[in-house]
Amino acid sequence: MTKSPKILIAGGGIGGMAAALSLLRRGYDVEVYEQARELGEVGAGVQISPNGSRALDALGVFEKLKAASCAPQRKEFRLWNTGRSWPMFDLGSMAIEKYGYPYLTVYRPDLLATLVDAVREIAPDAIHLGSAVTDVDLRDDGVTLHFEGGASAEGDLLIGADGVKSTVRKSVFGDDEANFTGMIAWRAVIPMERLPEHMRQMVGWTWIGPGGHMVNYPLRGGQIMNMIGTIERDDWQVESWYTQGSIEECANDFAGWHEDVQALIHAAPTVMKWAFMERPPRQQWTKGRVTLLGDACHATLPFLAQGAVMSIEDGVVLGRCLDKYDDPLEALVRYEQARVERTSKMVRGAKENTARFHESALATEEGAVKYMESEWSRDPINDRYDWLYRYDVLTTEI
Ligand SMILES: Cc1cc2nc3c(=O)[nH]c(=O)nc-3n(C[C@H](O)[C@H](O)[C@H](O)COP(=O)(O)OP(=O)(O)OC[C@H]3O[C@@H](n4cnc5c(N)ncnc54)[C@H](O)[C@@H]3O)c2cc1C
After folding, report:
1. Active-site residue, 101 included
2. What is the DSSP string of 103-129?
3. N or C: which end of the chain has fewer CB within 10 A?
């Protein structure tokens, strides 16, 4: 027997599936509507910090995901040209000792598949593919989702988990302003055997330099190396996960960078590029029977690696609120109140990291040494990351 209210979720990405799982585990009647005709995530990596591992454990999928992921030993900074390294975090046993959970790096399709399998185990028919939401009809007594092709669905509550360009957000709140940041990013997943021997390590590197940075970390037990390079450039402004670029153009953006950076780029079978846009963090995302979740309400630059993790946290907290408050509309408001400060701080912090990763003092090794001491030694790192990683979805006040 499922509990009321009947909950519709628009968007079957990481956030939508995490929310579906959280609500199904609590016994609610849930339907997920995803525009894609087949389920699949972008072939890229995602970092799951200890707060994310804890949230996935609350959803009952942590052990399964851990088995498909990597727990790199540590993360290091490396200087863009000389390759000099500085410690960033210890990700292995220290993370477990300090936070109770490891820092994992996960292949996105594995994360989505783990969530989808768990959803289907509870409700085999809850996920509806090829269902692109075009409009929302929000009334006092219910909510209707309209889909491309003319079909519709009725529910008591609606969760808009349909990503940065959310149709639900547009329909209920109007569109958000998005501004180009002056940065584009390159991404690739590289079979580990294509890399030189010394780069096949269970370590994450963040290469930092004036006007750009590159992150690489292992996935799938070390079979794959994930690469994301960000560079300040304003001649291309398309916000899309699916635009293919060329190895030459990417290598050119990182001309003069260390040979390991060049080795990553040239080992990539293909490179994809997209432009980073930014949206100010929303302060309100619930209206009557509708609320938003994940990138739909707190899209972020990826420079704290928290977007997906926060969308998973959202789902768990939303489920707790619906259980706690008898009035489902009050539960949605309480969910927003419980999440808005944390997610806004995360969006602002990710933006602030742009300058930290791209600092002009990094141009020379002498400048870099001083800069790393003031901005990236243990205490400032602790101040900036500890509040993120300590968060407990199951005990945070709601
Ligand atoms: C380069 C990069 C690196 C990142 N690295 C990390 C990281 O290391 N760690 C981390 O935590 N986060 C990371 N993120 C952020 C993370 O990818 C996002 O925050 C996360 O995917 C948000 O999940 P979501 O479910 O809210 O949105 P999405 O993943 O965008 O999912 C939205 C879903 O809604 C569907 N949809 C859209 N419109 C409609 C519609 N009209 N009707 C029906 N369905 C619809 C889409 O098809 C999609 O499946 C990174 C992001 C980028 C760009």
Report:
1. no
2. -EEEEHHHHHHHHHHHHHHH-TT-EE-
3. N
